[in-house]
Design brief:
- The protein has 72 residues and is mainly alpha-helical.
- The structure holds zinc ion (ZN).
């Protein structure tokens, strides 16, 4: 049995994921919040937005100097 058949049989992890009604962060996979990727996977929009905000925050953050004023 190939992995593809496994998924179609509903025993693979992909099939298990598809049955989930919430993302791993608890956001509902409803029509509003769900986005389908080119790979046929679902993506949580709320998580995507959060990741996007995190990414932007990190990008704009001032890099911390390593070491520096340590006396001596
Ligand atoms: Zn989510």
């Amino acid at each position: 049995v190939t992995w593809r058949e496994n998924i179609l049989r509903g025993e693979g992890q992909g099939a298990r994921n598809a049955r989930k009604t919430h993302c791993k962060h608890g956001h509902p996979f409803d029509q509003e919040n769900t986005e389908w990727t080119l790979l046929g996977r679902r993506r949580c929009r709320a998580c995507k937005r959060q990741a996007d905000e995190r990414y932007r925050a990190r990008k704009s953050a001032v890099p911390q100097p390593t070491g520096g004023t340590n006396g001596t």
